[in-house]
Amino acid sequence: MSDLVEHLGIGRASIYATFGSKHELYLKAMDRYAEMRDPLLLAELSQPGPALPAVRAVVRRFAAEAASPEGRLNGCFVTNTAAELAPHDPAAARRVEISWEHVETPLHSALVRAQAQGEMPEDRDPRALARMLFVLLQGLRVVGKASNDPARVRDAAEQALALLD
């Protein structure tokens, strides 16, 4: 809270008057983070044309972000919340679930489209693949934050993408 007071140049009482508790401020920050991040993914995955290149680009972008110095320093707000707060904070857990749906659903839609366009074999399950990719993306964020070997996340991403062929 002291960092916010210093950075914003307003009093602690003003922050509490606006947001209520620290917890409410945290949840509002999560909401804002989701508002900023989630539409970008949907836009990437819903472009007209072939769908698999967009899926591949998203997975590779997540891997690059996870392996970047900023990714290692900060990680992802939702992933961090999932690991730290969600097990014992129902309000945070709900926001994590909603954010995760905003990742998994566009992945699923893109994979259904890819299959319908003949980019992916018919015997693949788009829902299961979307879930696998979603879990991979979350794992990339966790491992990227803790590992100083960028090849670890890049290799995992490429191996997962090979499952789409």
DSSP strand (E) fraction? under 5%
Please describe the biggest sheet, giving its number of strands, its sense, and whether it closes into a barrel: none
Number of domains: 1
Number of helices: 9
In the CATH scheme, the class would be: Mainly Alpha
Helix content: over 70%
- Counting helices, strands and paired strands, the structural category is mainly alpha
Distance between the termini: 49 Å
* Helix and strand sequence: HHHHHHHHH
> Rough shape?
elongated
Low-pLDDT runs: none
Cα-based radius of gyration, to the nearest Å: 18 Å
What do we call the CATH topology?
A: Tetracycline Repressor, domain 2
Q: Work out the number of β strands.
A: 0
Mean model confidence by pLDDT: 89
How would you name the CATH homologous superfamily? Tetracycline Repressor, domain 2
The assigned CATH architecture is: Orthogonal Bundle
Protein name: Putative HTH-type transcriptional regulator YezE
InterPro entries: Homeodomain-like_sf, HTH_TetR, Tet_transcr_reg_TetR-rel_C_sf, TetR_C
Domain HTH tetR-type: 1-37
GO molecular function, one term: DNA binding
Describe this structure in words.
This protein is mainly alpha-helical. The chain has a single domain (27-162), classed as Tetracycline Repressor, domain 2, CATH 1.10.357. Helices cover 79% and strands 0% of the residues. It is built from 9 helices and no strands. It has helices at residues 2-8, 12-19, 22-45, 52-67, 69-74, 77-84, 90-116, 126-146, 150-162. Helix 4 (52-67) runs antiparallel to helix 9 and helix 7 (90-116) packs across helix 8 (126-146). The radius of gyration is 18 Å and the shape is elongated.
